[in-house]
Amino acid sequence: MSLNDLPAFNASFNGLAAVFLSFGFYFIKHRNRAAHQKCMVAALISSALFLAGYLTYHFTVHGVTKFVNPPWFRPFYLTLLLTHTVLAVVIVPLILVTLIRALRERFDAHRKIARWTWPLWMYVSVTGVIIYLLLYQIFPQR
Length: 142
Hints:
By secondary structure, the protein is mostly helical.
């Protein structure tokens, strides 16, 4: 394994986060707070591992990746990347506030912000996997 393998691991961590988010949603809807909590902590850890791997890869190995080919698909890719990136920045403080409210057992306030946090976090996690597939598997840019 080398640092060049990080994009695949990063996509896996994003995918895992989406799986844990899905199970966390299922468990809270079925009033299983303990299982929900474990899934959400696992999603947080998965997302943190993604972020560490992403920063490591882009600051030490690769730098900026450019999507060039095919040119007809570039606008679609850039639109997806833009929404993903903006929401990835927005989601970090939302996750932290949502987590802090849960830890302080302020569940009414937790629920109010979680209604925004969960779908945005899910979008960022799923689109992270899609971006990986587009950039490294479907239309390799290397």
